[in-house]
Amino acid sequence: MRATALFMPTIKEDPADAEAASHKLMVRGGFVRQFASGIYIMLPLGWRVIQRICEIIREEMNAIGAQELSMPTLHPADVWQATGRYDAIGQEMFRFKDRGGRDMVLAMTHEELFAWLASRELRSYRDLPQTWYQIQLKFRDEPRPKGGVLRVREFLMKDSYTFDIDEAGLEESYVKHIGAYDRIFARCGLEFYRVESDSGFMGGGQAHEYMAPSSAGEDKVAMCGSCGYAANVELARSTARTPTSANATPGDAALREVSTPEQRTIDEVSAFLHIEPSQLIKSLVYIAGEAAVLALVRGDHSLHENKLTRYLKSEVRPAHPEEVKEVTGAEVGFVGPVGLSVRIIADEALRPPGGAPRTYTAGANKEHTHLQGVVIGRDFEPEFADLREAQEGDACPRCGASLTMKQVIEIGNIFKLGSKYSLPLGATVLDEAGQERPIIMGSYGIGPARIAAAAVEQSHDDRGIIWPKSIAPFDVHLIQVQAKDPIQTQVAQGLYDRLAVEGWQVLWDDRDERPGFKFADAELIGCPVRVTVGKKAVDRVVEVEPRAGGAREDVPLEGGADRIRELWEASS
RNA sequence: CGGGGCGUAGCGCAGUUGGCUAGCGCACCUGCUUUGGGAGCAGGGGGUCGCCGGUUCGAGUCCGGCCGCCCCGACCA
Question: Residue A266: pLDDT band by 50, 70, 90 thresholds?
Answer without folding.
Answer: confident
